[in-house]
Design brief:
Blueprint: H1 10-20, H2 27-38, H3 45-54, H4 61-73, E1 77-83, E2 86-91, E3 99-103, E4 109-112, H5 115-127, E5 138-141
Parallel strand pairs: 3-5
Antiparallel strand pairs: 1-2, 3-4
Length: 159
């Protein structure tokens, strides 16, 4: 597995979680974890499953769904609801703080980081005597560069 710049080891966290829950430590669960942390983009369960198949893993969609629930429970991934009925996930460890721009036309997700958001968070916590433990900022809009036929240039990435 590629090293993640953090003092937390996702594989060890999963192993400990499975042991504490008396759950099986299967090759498939660790393969799914490895591929999630190798991905450089947000993913749905279905797109992750397609990726696993392209990488020649023989893992069922049901196994992916079940593993996702375990990875959420041990806080190795985060779930976002960028579209009405679609859950999108990303690794939770080794990620820099970031926020999201989401195209309402195609669902394309762009990450961005602006230190002013952290400054606002710190200021508001101090002013309101509130210990902020995290935040989520999702900005929705439309990609600026539409193709001549009116389809977002990122449309192919949504598949």
């Amino acid at each position: 597995m590629n090293q993640i710049v953090t003092n937390k080891d996702p594989e060890k966290i999963l192993r400990n979680y499975l042991e504490k829950g008396n759950l099986r430590k299967t090759k498939e669960r660790f393969s799914i974890l490895k591929e999630i942390y190798n991905l450089k983009t947000h993913f749905s369960v279905e797109s992750l499953h397609e990726h696993l198949l392209r990488e020649h893993y023989k893992i069922s969609l049901a196994t992916v769904y079940n593993t996702i629930e375990h990875l959420l429970a041990c806080k190795l991934i985060r779930r976002h609801h960028f579209e009405q009925n679609l859950s999108i996930y990303e690794p939770a460890i080794g990620q820099r703080q970031h926020d999201h721009l989401i195209c309402s036309d195609c669902g394309y997700v762009l990450e961005f980081c602006d230190p002013r958001i952290q400054q606002i968070q710190d200021t508001m916590g101090e002013l309101l005597n509130f210990r902020i433990t995290g935040h989520s900022l999702h900005l929705y809009g439309h990609c600026n560069k539409l193709k001549e036929n009116g389809i977002c240039p990122h449309f192919e990435k949504k598949k």
